[in-house]
Design brief:
The chain is of the alpha+beta class. About 30% of the residues lie in helices and about 20% in strands.
């Protein structure tokens, strides 16, 4: 009975020792090596060694930041393309075996904003680890110092709209009408039969009379145009017209009478012969 009791006390002591003795917890550490001291716009590589992590799939990303700030930037190559975002499982995947893993990450400067990248100078580089579920896990690591030499993009000035002066309407030049030239028709001269001496004399008298009448009409017309301010009278032109018609009629009558007499004399002369 005594031996059984002692054995029971021994196992109870071992159980209590196992239950209440503090377990040793291993912290996850990340060691960074072979990193560039100067970073420019070209891609670069970083070696990472992970220890103390649970076996399974993990994901790693590269963080660049200014010391004392939480503005992270930089892109990580995940084996397919460059990624910078909040989805943990989109970063570079590694397999934790026996609590350890090692990898070489590819990173580059990326396209940070003006609040994330404050210009060329000293910055920090660290590795962030995500678990298989995509959650971020705190790890023990010492960030390394790097010098980033990438020019800060200069923001383009915003051009202010300029007021376009309103052009005042210009007066169109007044077109002066071109006077239409007066076309003077040249009278067509028709050939006439050669008159006899008597007819020629009478014709000359009639022409002289007609020229005198025409001159009188022209003079009266010019005098009437020069005296536009004076009251016009239609009596004088009518008088000259009537006289002209009378002279022309009288001359025609005398011409035909004389011609008739001449014809009679010619007939008598022919009879005598």
């Amino acid at each position: 009975m005594c031996n059984k009791r002692n054995i029971l006390i021994f196992f109870l002591f071992i159980f209590l020792f196992i239950s209440f003795f503090p377990k040793k917890v291993f912290a996850v550490t990340l060691d960074i090596s072979n990193y560039p001291s100067v970073i420019n716009s070209d891609p670069f590589s970083v070696d990472v060694f992970v220890s103390g992590a649970s076996d399974g799939k993990n994901y790693l990303r590269i963080d660049l930041y200014k010391d004392g700030t939480t503005k992270y930037f930089g892109e990580t190559f995940n084996g397919v393309d460059w990624y910078f975002g909040s989805t943990g499982i989109s970063y570079f995947a590694i397999d934790i075996i026996d609590s350890t893993a090692s990898a070489t990450l590819q990173g580059r400067f990326g396209s940070p904003s003006l609040t994330e990248y404050l210009g060329p100078g000293n910055y920090k580089l660290r590795i962030r680890r995500y678990t298989s579920s995509g959650g971020s896990s705190t790890t023990d690591q010492t960030p390394v110092d790097v010098n980033i030499q990438v020019a800060t993009p200069t923001p383009e000035p915003t051009s202010e709209p300029t007021n376009t002066p309103t052009s005042s309407p210009t007066n169109s030049p007044t077109l002066t009408p071109t006077p239409t030239p007066v076309v003077t028709k040249t009278p067509t001269i028709k050939p006439t039969n050669t008159p006899s001496p008597n007819e020629t004399e009478e014709s000359l008298n009639m022409e002289v009379l007609g020229i005198q009448i025409e001159d009188n009409l022209i003079n009266s017309t010019q005098s009437s145009e020069e005296n536009n301010d004076k009251p016009k009278s239609n009596f004088l032109p009518i008088l000259f017209i009537v006289l002209g018609i009378s002279f022309v009629g009288f001359s025609g009558f005398a011409f035909f009478k004389q011609k008739r007499l001449n014809n009679s004399e010619d007939e008598k002369n022919s009879e005598v012969i």
